[in-house]
Amino acid sequence: MAAKSNLSGSPDADLSSLSDRSLSSRASNRSLRVAEKERRKNDAEDPFVLALKYFSNVEAGTPVHGNDEVEKNLVLVERAAYSKGLSPEAISVMLEFAMSLRMGSGICPRVLKCLIPATVVPQEAVVRAVAWLGVANIPVNTQILFIKWLLTVFDLIDAKDQLRAIYGFIFNFTSEENLCPFICHLLYLLTRKESVRVFRVRKLLELQSKLGRQPFLLNLLSLYKVFCPELVTLSIPSQLKSVFRNHNLPWKSALTVVQRRNSPQVASSLNLFSTSKHKTTSRKRKHHHLGLAMLSSAVNKEPQTETSRQLVPLVQLHSVAQLLENMHRIELPAQMGSLLGSSLGLHYLDCVQDESALLRLNFWLGYTLQEELLFSSDEGSSQSSEESMQFLDKLLSTQHFLQEGFSSSEAFLYKFLSVWDGSVLRPQILGLLSNIPVVPSSQIGQLLFEPLMQLFFTSSLFFKCGLMESLNNMLLKWLTWHSVYALEDDLDISLNSHTSINMTLSGFKDSVMELVDFVGRLASVGLQLEGCHSLLLNFILDFYTTVCDMFLKYGLPLVVVPPPGVFYPALFATDPVSVDRLAFIMHRYKVNLTSAKSQEKLTKQAFRISRQTFKEFNNYAVFMVNCLWNAKLIQPGMSIQLGEELLLKSNVPEYWKSFDLIYHPAFMSYAVDFHQKCWPGRKDMDLDSIKHSKPWNWYLEYLFNQGYDGLKLFIQSNTSRQLTAGDGQGNSLSTE
Amino acid sequence: MERNQHSVRTPLNSVVERRSKSKSYRLSYRSGLGAASRPCFTPGLTARRLDTSRKAPKSRDITEKMTKEQLTLLVQTEWQLSYVTPLYRFRHTQLKSYSRQLSAFIAAEKQQGLAVDVEGTDNTFRVSFSLVQGMTESVDDAETVLIQIHRKSLFASQNEPLKPVWSGWLTCINVNPGYLQSLTKDFICLPLFCSSGAGALTTLVQSWFQQSFDCCFGPLEISHMSLQWLIALWINCNPESSIRQLKMIWTLPVEPPLKVTYTVNSEDAWELWRTVRKEDRAGEEEEDSIDIEEVTSFMQGLKGHFFRHFRLDLSAGCLNEVSTALGSAKHTGMIKISNSKYLITTLTLLTECAILKMPI
């Protein structure tokens, strides 16, 4: 029974699935149709499509002179051709238009010159055009131009069978004296064994007796001779060569541009191997430096290495496993620049200690950057900046891969910063900037700070933010470097002294100090210039989040507190996030300083953090606690002093309360919200009632629940919460 | 906590050194600003500048070592200058094989883009590499290499000599030893490349060098300052071999651009030069040297004279070309050294300019 129901069940299921399928296929059909309709509608509105329509429908004999419509449409087609190239359909429309001489022969060369194929050239169009060559009364120069175009795009024609079928027709044009050289070239490309006939050989010989031993005739004949030696008895000189020149001049540059643009964008992520094509550098291209060389093995091999072991060129390796297998006998490429695109190569470079290889890479990289970006004369062309951007992106991803910068890019950057306008290639340059290794404090000012300061003060807010971020990353890298290498002091593996870097701890500290001070100065003035913009403030606080943890996180015995120009704007900021972040930073400072102090006591020797630093920190901490917690704005003995009269003059009632956790502009809205939640019935709002001990604790709880962890940490570590608001005292660090 | 303690123990002024193997390698990535052992690896620093003082040119007879053909070629041609980054694994002993390789390379490149080459693989270009003997000054200088390309014409008879179509040479005179020390022994430093002939061939030769020795070629302009140095060096030779006349071409940035050709008689120029020369070199045994101050005051003198006559201050303009009987130089990097005696001095200056343009 069960089986039966099963049996009967299955056809049903099949049926339903069938109908499902048909349904879905119908749906997809419909969606296809809709899409098609949509496309047509779009096409109908596209001026380029309209222009093509115009050229395919225009009546014969329409005048060209004074005809604005044809001019407008032709410009449209030309623009499309030079930017993206023309689609096969567009090529056939335009070619048909030109060769049929529908609007006379005057416009014909102009149309021919803009026939830049985006992908392929349809064979039918070419065959039709060749047919027009025999019918229409086309001027000889235009005929030649057409054949030249045909020769240029020959490789892009989608099929050649029909063209070969009209071989005889084309051959007839050899009798036209002016066309003959180009026709011969075309025939040379089309010739196959079956096209070689006695009467053609005879014709060519006849031409030769008429025109003399012309190279193009000889060349075609020599090809005939290769196919059918029995038909051509003529002796061909052995030095025959280079007679068919390239006739691609009018289209060459446009064609390369279009093809490069249409080729898939180079992925910025590193492929296992560079896919960049090897371009001949003999072509006179202005920007040939930015292309990476192909991974190719060296030509001039050292004889002794060849005999001692079999070398494996890097280009033959395709996986990390292969790399590991052949680690001992890898041959570096002839041009080290090619490694930039190959992550396997970089892996290898990262392991071996080949200083020559690095120097080669650096020479090439430095040269490329310098010639392309520093000395290049034709600024502003979008093409070149696009290329530069891709190149720098590639360089950056390589540096990230190696987690280290190249010395040549560093050298380039020092030169470039002094001429930079702050906007060209901004993300890339800022990225390179953050990869700069530790600069000795004696040189840091001249190399980095002077140019950066000028740029900072003359640029937009977004540049300021970008620079802050970049300097923060730079500091992070320096600190990481220190925390890795300073700790390995005990390891004693000897190495050649040639490359060792001699930077003392105090030298390193000086550099970091200079950097932090510099950013402090920039930040103080920057905040003033930008009216304490909260975006900029956020980037600055990012930087100080790194600075405050230098001791505990990176083991650098150095604590630098922010300047007043950063501290006070952050404390009085109108957005709670900034205040919260400042509170977190102050908390971390306290933890760092406490730990430094206890260690100082423990180990006796070691470093000292200056009393001044403790004092500054304490001042800030006390001020902050007084302000937020005790509602006391000024206290005697503080670092900033405000005249009492001045504050009274401002006519703010009870000004001393203005920046406590209730009245602080950043938290006021929370206080109001809390008040409403706490006493929903109350009509008149009295925020002061939050100050009472019970609601105050609730209020704090409420604030902390909003995610202000920094504030929570700061308040927990700097006040004792059991006390009521009025009695809360900051327990600051002692300077002893 | 361990870590912190550790770092605290790090004594003040301890050397933060990279010790492990992988680290030593990585150092070469960093600029080594802190690396005392690589003085020239101070990239982009202003440390590398043109010397402010240089030896006065002494006429030297280098003719005895050089072959006559080489000398006439070097002296009678106007050269286009380029700088070259150090050549990797270039061997002066393998010039013969390089000649073969470059010939083959040129032939291959010339055939690119042609329809199938049916017959006649015979080379029409013959390349020869040769050493130029005696073209060195200090012991560190790599020997100068001369490259010549000859062309067989298609219909030439067997006995007809090959026609020279291109020549170029790589040289290095009095290079800064510090720079050489920063390179490993795999590199040969020949920073100055002079070429003359078809641009297409220059490009081909350069790309062959690029592929074979992993080096890069860039244009070398002769700066305003270097042109002034050349004037001074040439003037200083006047007593030994007359400069005939000093001709300078200035361009002034006005609308429309103004080109000034300023010619000075050799005696007048020498007279002016004599007055600006510092005479307080008493008791100085070492070789006569020229200071940058002397050069600038000489130029000031010339400009002042011009201003008195034409009310036109040349300091606002740019010196573009200089020529004397001893040689001529253009801002664009063209140079002709007409007198073999002062070849070395001029090349020392140009080598310095080339090193100055090195990326690292």
From TrEMBL, chain A:
InterPro entries recorded: CENP-I (IPR012485)
Originating species: Eleginops maclovinus
Primary subcellular site in the record, as a coarse category: nucleus
This protein's record includes keyword Transferase: no
Disordered as annotated region, ranges: 1-39
Family, as annotated: Belongs to the CENP-I/CTF3 family.
Gene Ontology CC terms: inner kinetochore; nucleus
Amino acid composition bias (Low complexity), ranges on this chain: 7-32
Any Pfam family the entry gives: CENP-I
Keyword Chaperone among UniProt keywords: no
Name of the protein in question: Centromere protein I
Keywords per UniProt: Centromere, Chromosome, Nucleus
Subcellular location as annotated: Chromosome, Centromere; Nucleus
One GO process term, biological-process aspect: CENP-A containing chromatin assembly
Automatic annotation (TrEMBL), chain B:
Entry-linked InterPro entries: CENP-L (IPR025204)
GO cellular component entries: chromosome, centromeric region; nucleus
Main location: nucleus
Entry's localization field: Chromosome, Centromere; Nucleus
One Pfam assignment: CENP-L
Superkingdom, natural source: Eukaryota
Keywords, in A-Z order: Centromere, Chromosome, Nucleus
Keyword Lipid metabolism set for record: no
Family recorded in the similarity comment: Belongs to the CENP-L/IML3 family.
PANTHER family: CENTROMERE PROTEIN L
Name of the protein in its database record: Centromere protein L
Organism per entry: Eleginops maclovinus
